Amino acid sequence: MTEHEHVRVAVIGSGFGGLGAAVRLRREGITDFVVLERAGSVGGTWRDNSYPGCACDVPSHLYSFSFAPNPDWPRTFSGQEHIRAYLEHVTDTFRLRPHIRFDCEVKMMTWDAEQLHWDIETSSGRLTADVVVSAAGPLSDPKIPEIPGLDSFPGKVFHSARWDHDYDLRGKRVAMVGTGASAIQIVPAIQPQVGSLTLFQRTPPWVMPRVDRAITGAERALHRTLPFTAQARRGLLWGIRELQVQAFTKHPNELGFVEQLAKRNMARAIKDPALRAKLTPDYRIGCKRILLSSTYYPALAQPNVDVVASGLSEIRGSTVVAADGSEAEVDVIIFGTGFHVTDMPIAERIVGAEGRTLAESWKDGMAALRGATAAGFPNWMTIIGPNTGLGNSSMILMIESHLNYMADFVKQLGVLGGRAALNPRPSAVAGWNQRVQERMKRTVWNTGGCTSWYLDANGRNTTIWPGTTTEFRRATRQVNLAEYEVLRAPARPAEDAPVNGKKTAEVEA
Ligand SMILES: Cc1cc2nc3c(=O)[nH]c(=O)nc-3n(C[C@H](O)[C@H](O)[C@H](O)COP(=O)(O)OP(=O)(O)OC[C@H]3O[C@@H](n4cnc5c(N)ncnc54)[C@H](O)[C@@H]3O)c2cc1C
Questions:
Q1: For residues 16 and 396, is the Cβ–Cβ distance under 8 A?
Q2: What positions belong to coiled-coil segments (predicted)?
């Protein structure tokens, strides 16, 4: 048998989720853990998405850890480089670097039902771990649609999350595919320098103005000297969003007046009625993510921009062809087509107790108990898993809720003693998901008349949390042991005395 390292906890990923997990484990007194990161630095989303104009849609004082406030945010909505710098700062402040293995991609991990641990194969060797916390990110693997002819396109092709900064866009004929959150930030950032910009839009988004401004030196000084003022600011930003979410989850019909505001926002910049018609959504606002931008519509009104209200369907040489038959010659195609969300690649790499991958177990749709644990995958949890996404607030709130759950999970295992594992009961997972889906029925995401990346191939919403962040915080405060079966194995030879002489893992009634 080859020698390998064994750790109490292995965390996958070093974005907000993985770094938050590392901080929390240390706070709980657990130092026997590693963070496995496939890239060469921390940051996750905010390392990978460096496209021009990349910024957060949630104000920075809310989109940051509650335990690591930053009084020096430069803008109300900070840009990618500031958020990335913040995560580097968190890594140093909490002395996380010794725990992180960079360039270490998890290739496969398999549950060892006898030893009650995970056997993890990485790009830089093998290790085993009692517990795995997967923080591989809900939006971390870019998705490029299969377009006939793409392979033979002679020009440049890249995805918004893998921006090629060596490629000079000045004067180029650009095709931008998609009109989601990334695309609407990219378009105004590149429009002034490109020769032409053909924008392929399958479904127009609802766009509201972005009230972004520099945070003044006086405000920053105030937050530095009187930290409770930064907390109050965060509290206010959070409270407003907690109230807003009621309209999305319970009263979608009351969102009509928000649509009027969005239409007025468009009319201010777009004077051409034909273009306005192309850009006006035919579904309820909120059904797809509401996008924030004060520069998107003005950019679309410029003479070098052509909005094609149709998807990209084919590529012939350097000609891009839309589903409606319109054509354009281009030098470069940029895909702003999102991520593998409901078909996460990491799920293909996790083999559970029954020898099935998580992807196979989720073939009819993702489902996890409290968005965190899956039946048949003992001692494994995911940070911001199924049905934890938010339409209007900060994902850091959801991540911190899951950090509470993770801390209690590890604590409960410690209390059980010996070598133990927690496997969620299928009935608990099913019950949780039934309740979530029941609540989902009347939300704007399911009733608003759109298709979106929130829905999986079966039309089920397995991504969004249909409630307030407070409700989620309450639901994940502690692990309810009644929802789990406890598995036990004999102690390792070097550990304490064997548990009742049991030779293999056994289930405790
Ligand atoms: C462009 C963009 C804008 C966004 N804007 C907002 C916003 O305004 N507000 C908001 O609340 N949320 C926003 N989000 C969502 C954002 O993803 C979350 O807020 C949060 O950053 C997720 O953190 P995470 O740690 O879970 O995942 P990530 O930040 O994606 O980190 C996952 C990490 O896991 C690593 N990894 C993945 N697979 C493996 C593997 N097999 N082995 C080893 N390492 C692996 C990745 O390299 C990555 O570093 C945005 C997302 C994107 C893409």
A1: yes
A2: none
Ligand 1 shell residues, CB under 6 Å: 12-18, 36-39, 44-45, 49, 56-58, 63, 105-106, 135-137, 139-140, 181-182, 346, 383-384, 394-395
Outline which parts of the chain fall under CATH 3.50.50.60. 5-141+340-488, 150-211+237-335
Asked if 292 and 57 touch (Cβ cutoff 8 Å), the reply is: yes
Which superfamily, per CATH, for 5-141+340-488? FAD/NAD(P)-binding domain (3.50.50.60)
Side by side, the strands of the sheet bearing 327-329 are 312-316, 319-322, 327-329
492 secondary structure, DSSP code: P
> Cα of 445 to ligand 1 centre, how many Å?
22
Question: Which tokens go with 457?
Answer: 């191939």
One of 2.115.10.20, 3.40.50.360, 3.60.15.10, 3.50.50.60 is the CATH number of 150-211+237-335, namely 3.50.50.60
Segment 84-105, tens digit of pLDDT: 999 999 999 999 999 999 999 9
- What are the structure tokens assigned to 265, written together? 């926002």
Residues of the chain with pLDDT under 70: 1-2, 490-509
Kindly give the distance from the C-alpha atom of residue 458 to the centroid of ligand 1, in angstroms, as a whole number: 24
